[in-house]
Amino acid sequence: MRPETLLAQCLPPAPAIVNGSFESGDYPCTAPLDAFAYGCVDDWFAGSQSPTIFEEFSVAGSSTVTPQQGDYFALCAAYNYPATHECFHEAIVQELDLIPGLSYRLQFYASTVSPYPYDSPLELNVYFTSGLTNAPTTSDLGLCLSLPSGDLVYSASFESYGGWTLVDITFQVPDNSTADQLVVFPISYDEAANSYYLLLDNFSIGLCTYSDLEA
């Protein structure tokens, strides 16, 4: 999938993403720190490691973040320590039925939390793929998740400490695409063995129509 360069005139967000604010009647569950892996977050699952949901979150020296919408938000951690070849990042996944050839506008809110006094930005990645299953690891450190074959729609350095920032992505589904899963995850390139946190909330997607600008 490629970012569109035409002017996007989008319809209001359609309810194609289910439970975009990560609400769940099953939370807290028996393993709240593995909420996505253990089915506590309706319609989402863990694509890597053990992402979870919180009502509020902070680390020493950071401000407390509360949900942008609803009662909970998702948290994906990222860790990188090249000296010992240790790395992980947590990913969340939802099945999403998009129509090849059509254009969509994906919107969600994101925030970052870092260990004081560090403030290295994360890389925020959003792509569509297929074939992922709920396959978390709660303790093993190893190679970071590599992108399986799929359609990358967004990858950029991101930081928004102490507040929520709207991420607004417009993309077109290739005519031959078979992707049916939305995947979101951070990557940390900090080499000081610190854990960084990407907070996510209020996902929505809408169908777009396009018009060319008159010269």
Short description:
This protein is mainly beta and 215 residues long. 0% of the residues lie in helices and 43% in strands. The protein has a single domain, classed as Jelly Rolls, CATH 2.60.120.260.
Strand/helix succession: EEEEEEEEEEEEE
Q: So, CATH architecture?
A: Sandwich
Q: Fraction of residues in helices?
A: under 10%
Oligomer classification: single chain
Give the CATH class.
Answer: Mainly Beta
Largest sheet: 8 strands, antiparallel
Number of domains: 1
Fourth-level CATH superfamily: Galactose-binding domain-like
Mean pLDDT: 78
Number of helices: 0
Shape descriptor = globular
Q: Distance between the terminal alpha carbons, to the nearest Å?
A: 27 Å
Radius of gyration: 17 Å
DSSP, total strands: 13
